[in-house]
Amino acid sequence: MPAPGSEFLLDVDTVIYALGTTANPIIAQTTPGLKVNKWGYIEIDEHTRMTSVGGVFAGGDIVTGAATVILAMGAGKLAARGMLEYMTASTARSV
């Protein structure tokens, strides 16, 4: 049962659901500049995990194809590290 007051609506342009074992083509179709490979999986910088869209990071099945939860969790950790480096560098540039 939902907790009272815990539900809310979000005004969004696109919703991308993560179901199944193949890449959802709507990701590339709705994200200008996002590079994907011939199978529709997102291409990333292997060091930073950043996509071809600055400030957008990816990991897990949408990058590698179907894999284990453990690998997806590891990819999330690496992407978080890349995000921190990106934000730290962005902050240093704006000072």
| Unreliable residue runs | none
Instruction: State the secondary-structure class.
Output: mainly alpha
Give the ordered list of helices and strands: HHH
Strand residue percentage: under 5%
Counted by DSSP, the helix tally is 3
Q: Would you mind describing this structure in some detail?
A:
- The chain has 3 helices and no strands.
- By secondary structure, it is mainly α.
- The model has no long low-confidence stretch (mean pLDDT 87).
Which keywords apply here?
globular; single chain; 95 residues; mainly alpha
Quick rundown:
By secondary structure, the protein is mainly alpha-helical. The protein has 3 helices and no strands. It is 37% helix and 0% strand.
List the helices and strands and how they pair.
Elements: H1 26-30, H2 61-64, H3 69-94
